[in-house]
Amino acid sequence: MAEQEPGAGRSPEARLLVVDDEPNIRELLSASLRYSGFEVIAASDGHEAVALAERVRPDLVVLDVMLPDLDGFAVAKRLRAGGRRMPVVFLTARDGTDDKVHGLGVGDDYVTKPFSLEEVVARIRAVLRRTRGDLELPSRLQVADLVLDEEAHHVERAGQPVRLSPTEFKLLHYFMSNAGRVVSKAQILDHVWNYDFGGDAGVVESYVSYLRRKIDNVEPRLIHTLRGVGYVLRAPRH
Amino acid sequence: MAEQEPGAGRSPEARLLVVDDEPNIRELLSASLRYSGFEVIAASDGHEAVALAERVRPDLVVLDVMLPDLDGFAVAKRLRAGGRRMPVVFLTARDGTDDKVHGLGVGDDYVTKPFSLEEVVARIRAVLRRTRGDLELPSRLQVADLVLDEEAHHVERAGQPVRLSPTEFKLLHYFMSNAGRVVSKAQILDHVWNYDFGGDAGVVESYVSYLRRKIDNVEPRLIHTLRGVGYVLRAPRH
DNA sequence: ACCCAGGCTCAGCCGTCGCTGAGCGTTTGC
DNA sequence: GCAAACGCTCAGCGACGGCTGAGCCTGGGT
């Protein structure tokens, strides 16, 4: 279950409008994005979305393609009526219908369902960074001599580049954005794995093991196990 | 059994609804949470819970998953009918069914039965902190040169990091949140150990011993024994 | 059609943790 | 001053949590 996140207290990074008709997904996203530091409002269908966007002027819209009333793309079109800029991150099913995504506007992006929270947050940040030259959002995370560049999708330890599989990368990214904070295996599952993942926490142990082999095989060790609690990524001493 | 606690006299931190069909657990929780400074009302089944919540509008619900009438998740759903926000801390059995908890309602949290009171209070506070931007009840406790950082799950004495087992950590945390106040061995058993723990108070002595060895082996001594009464954690008076 | 990388599960091993019981020292009460 | 109660420490055990290597399955690329 999702627990602590950064971003509390600071003024919101941006205002988001989340549009999805499934209450579970809508709530999952809203809560999680709020805890990530965004201001979030939500709508459950296309018309409500258009009306709300009119009033609250969000910085970005997270938009399910499958809506009961309007097609997601139709919603996007209306949002941008009058030439107004309105970046959109689409949520789309993984089946064949992705073809329709080719209709993306510039600056838009999409995430396939089922997604992981890490993925969604990453896409949102990337789009925001692009559309408003928001350099404040660092695309580069660093802990000791471990560096992860999000934009370049590049990781290196002690100056040596490291090849990571997608899951390994997401896991490391999650660790690094929570450096110094203990994260439980349940939290990791919630953020790094897709929300419909049914398996148990053993898989987290496996991937931590892979990660250690690839990026934590030199001193100082950065990934620490806290038995019965979780993991921390941190430089020693502090 | 639980005795005195902080929070008496001050205005309640929040209003809680406790839902459990076992009278023992219900009373244990209600009493303990009251002494922790919460306003508490209780219900023994799902329908009563929904009806009560309707009337008294609690800030948070502590909800057993196994109820005689409604499933705990069903109750949660009804509590949130109409899109109302209602944070929930679930109480769930430790058997394999934990999987069901994963993936439902973000912003919620859960505690496995049998729990310790420390655990429950901690989860409740964490959820409240999140859901109402109740910023930064400091996650850092300090007494003299002894520091416990909850978020990082890190302890140090005189600048030196110390490794503690989970139980040692919980015990120290209990001491530190009650710094300057005498706690009896019975209180410690009630708060730090699971409520179904059958053993005797000897185990507390053991763990106090371990703690002393790890974090109280330098001057000034912080953990003091009051024979026949209990223990206090406090910096020496000057 | 094949191969390979990636995702996941499983099971055995190992270390640690939690608890108990015994022995010993210290304090208290008589 | 003595005995009983209380508290401290240590050793030992059973059990559990976490790590990792092996293996299966899937999907994508050649």
What is the approximate shape of chain A? elongated
Tell me the major beta sheet of chain A: 5 strands, parallel
Largest interface: A-B, 29 and 22 residues
One letter per element, helices H and strands E, the order of chain A comes to EHEHEHEEHEEEEHHHEE
Count of discrete domains of chain A: 2
Give the averaged pLDDT of chain A, no decimals: 87
Sheet/helix structural class of chain A: alpha/beta
Low-confidence stretches of chain A: 1-5
Discrete helix count of chain A = 7
Query: Under CATH, the topology of the largest domain in chain A is which?
Result: Rossmann fold
The CATH homologous superfamily of the largest domain in chain A is called Response regulator
**Terminal Cα separation of chain A, in Å?**
29 Å
CATH C-level of the largest domain in chain A: Alpha Beta
| Biggest sheet: strand arrangement of chain A | 2-1-3-4-5
> What oligomerization state is this entry in?
homodimer
Modified residues (4-aspartylphosphate) (chains A, B): 64
InterPro entries (chains A, B): CheY-like_superfamily, OmpR/PhoB-type_DNA-bd, Sig_transdc_resp-reg_receiver, WalR-like, WH-like_DNA-bd_sf
Domain Response regulatory (chains A, B): 15-128
DNA-binding region (chains A, B): 138-235
